[in-house]
Amino acid sequence: xxxxxxxxxxxxxxxxxxxxxxxxxxxxxxxxxxxxxxxxxxxxxxxxxxxxxxxxxxxxxxxxxxxxxxxxxxxxxxxxxxxxxxxxxxxxxxxxxxxxxxxxxxxxxxxxxxxxxxxxxxxxxxxxxxxxxxxxxxxxxxxxxxxxxxxxxxxxxxxxxxxxxxxxxxxxxxxxxxxxxxxxxxxxxxxxxxxxxxxxxxxxxxxxxxxxxxxxxxxxxxxxxxxxxxxxxxxxxxxxxxxxxxxxxxxxxxxxxxxxxxxxxxxxxxxxxxxxxxxxxxxxxxxxxxxxxxxxxxxxxxxxxxxxxxxxxxxxxxxxxxxxxxxxxxxxxxxxxxxxxxxxxxxxxxxxxxxxxxxxxxxxxxxxxxxxxxxxxxxxxxxxxxxxxxxxxxxxxxxxxxxxxxxxxxxxxxxxxxxxxxxxxxxxxxxxxxxxxxxxxxxxxxxxxxxxxxxxxxxxxxxxxxxxxxxxxxxxxxxxxxxxxxxxxxxxxxxxxxxxxx
Length: 502
Fold this sequence. Notes:
Elements: H1 24-37, H2 40-50, E1 55-58, H3 60-67, E2 74-78, H4 82-89, E3 95-97, E4 105-110, E5 113-119, E6 121-124, E7 133-136, H5 140-145, E8 155-157, E9 163-164, H6 169-175, E10 177-178, H7 184-190, H8 193-205, E11 208-209, H9 211-220, H10 229-240, H11 245-254, H12 264-267, H13 281-298, H14 305-313, H15 318-321, E12 323-324, E13 330-331, H16 335-349, H17 354-366, H18 380-390, H19 394-403, H20 410-433, H21 445-452, H22 458-474, H23 479-492
Parallel strand pairs: 2-5, 10-11
Antiparallel strand pairs: 1-2, 1-8, 3-4, 4-5, 6-7, 8-9, 12-13
């Protein structure tokens, strides 16, 4: 299957002439792609062709098919304007939606297959604009030249199955390199988010970034300021959940992009690890992220956004808490508390959901708790508190704590692993006796009011917390013993039990 170039004008300076043919395996991949979407897309192609319009599968589906990756969403492009697309699918599609029509996109569903059709277009941002200006084109070349990277600037025409690759995307797939169809400066000026997309693709696909593209990313990183926090968050999420998030974070940092996305990360390079186990806390944090990912996989887990963000951010409080002691020792007292606050602020600014923000912040605040365990001298009550404070995050805290051990001293690493094995066994034993994450006092708020003869108010909360501490310290007391303890506490507090005031 030859690469179609004949309809296209001369390549611009950054796009070398393409002289390539698909291998038999790649031909099979394109054929599989067409079979996957057949007959819905084929019918659409015939419908558009009969009306004198072009239609092609474009971008991600073509790239993934050639890489042998699963193809999920089908993106189509056409010379028909959105209003014309609506006319062509009227009465044929089972459902149509126009939520993206202002950007030239019409969505539809037919026989259970969902596709999006976008008019040939280009997007550009004014210097201070957060919303792109969309203009429609009239040819497939005009559409492909304005796409982000050459590996996403390939298309398959329908019907017919002609493979179109004007900018060497096939070659770049083979080289595992990210280049832009035109000058990278033009591409990133059209949409600065492409800087983050490129870094995310590198992490997802294991690709390298072309030198000219990397230089443009660095030079234009500040343009990310005009992109909405939500769009940056979405790209960052995909990066963190990628097979190699360390690669993405390293690229962001090395290219200066992290300064506008996660500025706390490059600042870790200024901090020397107090144990001199790593060049700096930055390298330690990347290692913890790596080890958390490895532990996820070893336990058969799906990529966990909360866990991975906590692993990356767990030490971001160190630069603010660094203190130099006599003899050259460096300390970072309470960096977990400061880091929890910083994590919450950064993730909130990036518009992450509240539950993600709170969970990551809590893990950061708890990540040092285990290091007080020593050689197992914690009482059962301390173990209960550890499990209860972690709550639904306990399994993630187990992984984060283990991942945080990056010492090269094998004896020390083995000792830490044995200690954590021990605390997990103790939690499991106690969990069989009671649901640790749901520990409550033996008396609830209503019972406390009845015993003390008080109305709802702060005093009930104080009594509740007192009974909770007893519960954590001694395990289940039963209502009779809890009532006696509550009365003793009330006497110490100068509270005379009686009937609630009306």
